[in-house]
Amino acid sequence: MRRLEGKVAIVTGAGQGVGQGIAFALAAEGAKVVVTGRTLKKLESSCAEITKRGGEALAVECDIKDRTALASLVSASVKHYGGIQILVNNAQEVPLGSLHEIEDEALSAGFESGPIATFRLMKLCYPHLKGDGCIINLASSAGKRWDMSGYGGYAATKEAIRSLSRAAACEWGKDGIRTNVILPHALSPGLEWWINDRPEEAAAYLASIPMQRLGDCEDDIGKFVVSLCSEDSRYVNGQSIALDGGQAFLG
């Protein structure tokens, strides 16, 4: 029997990159996956690939900055599949640049799509997750960089997600809900853009990874998420886990 047979998962930002890789991996282990994001065409492409591989998926277009859209996402998921056991908060707009470069609007969008959307969706899913639920939130090791130049806004949003996740783990553990955070490095479209835009910085970044490579969205990140959501990890709660080839020391 597949490890997540009978489970229903919501994965935000599942139209491409890390979110898509996680959705593929969850579906391969038997989960019915609600793939959500802003671009329906990308979501339908992810669903088509899951179906092609023998899995089951539902595409739901959703702007995670919209509180009403998040509520509709949860309702549609429960109506279609009958429940929710796994929530993966992956999607986020990223405010990159120095403090002088980042506009208020970009920082606000980072918080709205990151910690605020995570906060809202965790609470909306809570009644359905009770008893046997698993939340995986995505953060970044940017908050642990030795030089924070150019990453202050981004790191601030991701560290807020880690704090909210730890609180959820402590408050909801008694309700049968586990909450953990992953901090992945993977060759997503966003990271490819960054590598092309900042080649010298990207080369130094890659050289600082002990394993000397970036992760694969499905095989390295998605399959770990499967393990974290399975019975194999039933006593893992409140942790931040770097999936980065050994680069970060969370301390």
Please characterize this protein's 3D structure.
The chain is globular. The protein is α/β, with parallel strands linked by helices. It has a single domain (8-186, 218-242), classed as NAD(P)-binding Rossmann-like Domain (Rossmann fold), CATH 3.40.50. It has a 7-stranded parallel β-sheet, with helices on both faces. The chain has helices spanning 17-28, 40-52, 67-81, 104-129, 152-172, 189-197, 199-207, 217-229; strands at 8-12, 32-37, 56-61, 86-89, 133-138, 177-184, 240-243. The model has no long low-confidence stretch (mean pLDDT 95). α5 links the parallel β5 and β6 (177-184). 47% of the residues lie in helices and 16% in strands. The protein is built from 8 helices and 7 strands.
